[in-house]
Design a protein that fits this description.
Elements: E1 7-15, E2 21-24, E3 33-34, E4 38-40, E5 47-49, E6 54-64, E7 69-75, H1 80-83, H2 87-100, H3 107-121, E8 125-129
Antiparallel strand pairs: 1-6, 1-8, 2-6, 3-4, 4-5, 6-7
Pfam families: Rep_fac-A_C
Domain Replication factor A C-terminal: 9-95
Organism: Pteruthius melanotis
């Protein structure tokens, strides 16, 4: 992990993607390849059962300070306070919701999550460590 080089006060202009959670390798934090039963990390070779995969936040934002527009990505547990739960728990809640509601297409739960994230972040000012 890199250390913070400087702090930047900026406003969030937009959310760059709708995938805020990803299955992450516990060793190197790279995205895992998941199938119905197993996971595999292409970077370090870690493997295991899909049910044991851990999840991590990844929020890509377009931000603006007084001079520039920037694209940044915020990773990991620093987002826990904003979402109110860990990425792993949020992933479980989404899966449970989809199962309980009988959703075969996860588009509606994804759309609701995107709307909530946009409401919480867009137009708000934050201090980013870059």
């Amino acid at each position: 992990m890199n250390s913070v080089q400087e702090l930047l006060a900026a406003s969030v202009i937009s959310i760059q993607n709708s995938c805020f959670i990803y299955p992450a390798c516990q060793n190197c934090f790279s995205r895992l390849i998941l199938d119905s039963r197993r996971f595999n990390c292409l970077k370090c070779g870690c493997a295991g059962e899909a049910k044991d995969a851990s999840y991590r936040y990844r929020l890509s934002l377009k931000i603006a300070d007084t001079n520039d527009l920037l694209d940044i990505t915020v990773f990991g547990s620093c987002l826990d306070p904003f979402f109110g739960v860990t990425a792993e728990n949020l992933q479980r809640y989404i899966q449970d919701f989809n199962q309980l509601s009988g959703e075969t297409n996860t588009e509606s739960s994804t759309r609701a999550l995107v709307q909530a994230v946009e409401t919480c972040f867009i137009g708000k000012r934050f201090i980013f460590g870059v």
